[in-house]
Design goal:
With about 140 residues, the protein is mostly helical. The protein has one domain. It is about 85% helix and about 0% strand. The chain is built from 5 helices and no strands. The chain has helices spanning about 1-35, 45-55, 60-75, 80-110, 115-140. Helix 1 (about 1-35) packs across helix 3 (about 60-75), helix 1 (about 1-35) packs antiparallel against helix 5 (about 115-140) and helix 4 (about 80-110) runs antiparallel to helix 5 (about 115-140). It is elongated, with a radius of gyration of 17 Å. It starts with a helix and ends with a helix.
Length: about 140
């Protein structure tokens, strides 16, 4: 019974995580990139700092760590080429987050400039978005 429910749950978690990333890429980042640095109102770096603090909450952390954990568990309990590839992608997305996005967030939080943050962070963000969504698709193919 658990092995039947696990791939569906892994698909859902990976899709939700990818959806959060995609929404951020489609709406939040374009809005921040339109805000002039040093212009009237909040600086885009200040807004991103606030977003980085607000996102660290149990619901997001459950998706961030849960999607890869569910995908790996599904691959271990029911190994197929699809489930193994999905697990590798989900873990890869977490690695990108921890190795690239979080250090950029930390540098921004420490007062680093928005101009040095946005390009590298966005490239890594798009990688993790793609792998989370592709991982969810591959998990669903194996259902």
């Amino acid at each position: 019974m658990l092995t039947d429910l696990l791939p569906t749950t892994a698909t859902l978690a990976g899709g939700l995580l990818g959806g959060v990333y995609l929404a951020f890429d489609l709406a939040v980042l374009p809005a921040l990139r339109r805000v002039p640095v040093g212009g009237p109102g909040p600086d885009p770096g200040d807004t991103m700092r606030a977003i980085n603090v607000a996102i660290v909450r149990p619901s997001f952390l459950a998706l961030l760590f849960g999607a890869p954990a569910l995908a790996v568990t599904a691959a271990v309990l029911g190994p197929t080429p699809w489930s193994v590839a999905a697990a590798a992608l989900q873990v890869g997305g977490l690695v990108v987050t921890v190795a690239v996005n979080v250090p950029h967030n930390d540098r921004l939080a420490a007062g680093g400039p928005w101009s040095a943050f946005v390009g590298p962070w966005l490239r890594a963000h798009r990688v993790r978005t793609a792998v989370a969504l592709l991982g969810a698709v591959l998990t669903s193919v194996g259902l």
